[in-house]
Write a structure and sequence with these properties.
This protein has 146 residues and is mainly β. The protein has one helix and nine strands. The strands form two sheets. It has a five-stranded mixed sheet, with no helix packed on it. Strands 2-9-8-7 form a four-stranded antiparallel sheet, with no helix packed on it. Strand 7 and strand 8 form a beta hairpin. It starts with a helix and ends with a strand.
Length: 146
């Protein structure tokens, strides 16, 4: 009986995961700063930043104020546009927007000091009749040094 109890106690201890973070189920830390060495492709959640060195530059994914992209389950005449709000701090200080898809209004690229940052994707894509939560959005950026 004692062996059985020790085995059950060990299994329970291993299965608990040991996390003391009550919000660990929410996904990535929205305040995280991720170091990037160009050339690189990086995916950010709203609130996350990428950090480049030499010169120091941080780019934070702020919001998606507009997303009129054609939903995946609909046929549209126009592809639509997603406007993505970002802010740079450090070597360059400025707020700016990038747009997706690239053949529409605005630009999907920005030059910040010696770096070019390009919006590659915004996921998940809209689906007609379904709401997306801002915390579920992921922006993929391509970063290169000029």
């Amino acid at each position: 009986m004692r062996r059985y109890f020790i085995g059950v106690a060990a299994a329970l201890a291993l299965g608990c995961g040991g996390s003391t973070d009550p919000d660990h189920s929410r996904g990535p830390n929205p305040q995280a700063v991720i170091d990037v060495a160009p050339p690189a492709e990086i995916t950010l959640a709203i609130g996350q930043s990428l950090r480049l060195r030499n010169p120091d530059l941080q780019v934070r994914f702020l919001a998606v104020p507009e997303d009129s992209r054609c939903p995946n389950n609909v046929t549209c005449v126009w592809a639509g546009d997603a406007r993505i709000a970002l802010a740079a701090t450090g070597a360059v200080e400025r707020a700016f927007d990038l747009h997706l898809p690239t053949e529409q209004i605005g630009s999907s690229k920005v030059v910040l000091g010696p770096y070019e940052i390009e919006a590659e994707a915004l996921e998940p894509a809209p689906v007609a009749g379904e709401d997306r939560r801002p915390e579920d959005l992921r922006l993929t950026l391509k970063v290169r040094r000029l």
